TrEMBL record:
InterPro entries with a match to the protein in the record: Pectate_lyase
Gene3D superfamilies: 1.50.10.20
Protein name: Pectic acid lyase
Keyword annotations from UniProtKB, A to Z: Lyase
Organism: mine drainage metagenome
Pfam entry (one): Pec_lyase
Molecular function (Gene Ontology), one example: lyase activity
Length: 342
């Protein structure tokens, strides 16, 4: 009997060791790139981080030396992507290092939030436009979806330390209030959101030279879809959602499409052009706040009425038109409305 018990204990120790040391290349690289304070950068020496790469020892040493850099960010899915992946990897193979790193990342997100509920694009580096409340590329909404899933113990967030549930729920409530405060009102009518805001006065703000204060045809979609996740929405939230959807409906552009056109004479072998298409409906990335007219901008920071007037590099390197609200208007909003009448 004693012998069997010894064998059982030994087997349990082996299983525990295997779980602790079980590896996933992508997850291990995420551990390596995580900053000391919990966040992740989006670049490694100006290039997008390749989590599928087998890094040489000299590179690993360099990455380790840079672990205290202040380039943690929520831009380009950074930090939220790593948190979700690490939790999935933990649930799959049981390596607790993955769970610990994900929880450290969640604590980073909670610490980075402003008291008014918004999140800066970068933290702790708040220089230039990095300090602004950032909806651009769904940065803040990605964070809120992670924290909301945590508060509900949903998806991969169900394994996270229960002590983080309360802080996550509080952060989400504050974030929702920030969303409601930043929805732009024009002539007394609620519209949508700018891609970034001054964190002090909630005013639409400029980020990069070609990202000027505007009504956003893309980022506003993610905001509305997040608000529609909330159960028993208040009248204020319902009004925010309905007003934004009405704006999307009023701001659609019919009869044109934004396409790739092969052109061997161009540096990339193609151009991006507007063509007539009677069956097409698109939205501009940016609209003038006062007039609701679409506008475009290059690195010179000068507004242009026609995207063809934007320099080639920016014309082909930015999403100036898209169909972002289409599924929201045609499917998601009607489904939400049927459940939230009155």
């Amino acid at each position: 009997m004693k012998y069997r018990k010894t064998i059982l204990i030994f087997c349990l120790l082996v299983i525990s060791f295997l779980k602790l040391s079980a590896q996933d290349l992508v997850a291990d690289n995420m551990l390596m790139f995580q900053r000391d304070y919990g966040g992740w950068p989006k670049h490694y020496h100006e290039d997008k981080i390749d989590y599928n790469k087998v890094y040489a020892d000299v590179e690993k040493a360099t990455i380790a030396d840079e672990s205290n850099m202040n380039d943690g960010t929520i831009d380009n899915d950074a930090t939220t992507r790593e948190i979700r992946y690490l939790l999935k990897a933990y649930k799959k193979i049981g390596n607790k290092k993955y769970l610990d790193a994900a929880e450290k990342g969640i604590k980073y997100l909670l610490k980075a939030q402003y008291e008014n509920g918004g999140w800066p694009q970068f933290y702790p580096d708040l220089s230039s436009y990095r300090h602004e409340i950032t909806f651009n590329d769904n940065a803040m909404i990605n964070v809120m979806n992670v924290l909301y899933d945590l508060s509900l113990q949903k998806n991969e967030l169900d394994v996270v330390d229960k002590s983080l549930i309360g802080p996550a729920a509080t952060a989400v409530k504050k974030g929702v209030q920030c969303i409601l405060k930043t929805q732009i009102k024009v002539n007394g009518k609620l519209t949508v959101w700018c891609a970034q805001y001054d964190e002090i006065n909630y005013q639409p703000a400029k980020a990069r030279a070609y990202e000027l204060p505007s009504l956003s045809g893309e980022e506003s979609v993610g905001i509305v879809e997040f608000l529609m996740r909330l159960p028993d929405p208040s009248k204020e939230i319902k009004l925010a959602i309905t007003s934004a959807v009405n704006w999307f409906s009023d701001s659609k552009i019919s009869g044109i499409d934004w396409v790739h056109k092969k052109d061997a004479s161009m540096p990339k072998g193609f151009d991006r052009v507007v063509v007539k298409d009677a069956s097409s409906v698109v939205w501009a990335r940016f609209y003038e706040i006062d007039t609701n007219e679409p506008f475009f901008c290059g690195r010179d920071g000068i507004k242009k009425k026609n995207v063809a007037d934007v320099e080639y590099e920016r014309r082909t390197g930015y999403a100036w038109y898209g169909t972002w609200p289409k599924d929201l208007i045609e499917k998601k909003y009607p489904e939400w409305l049927s459940k939230n009448k009155g």
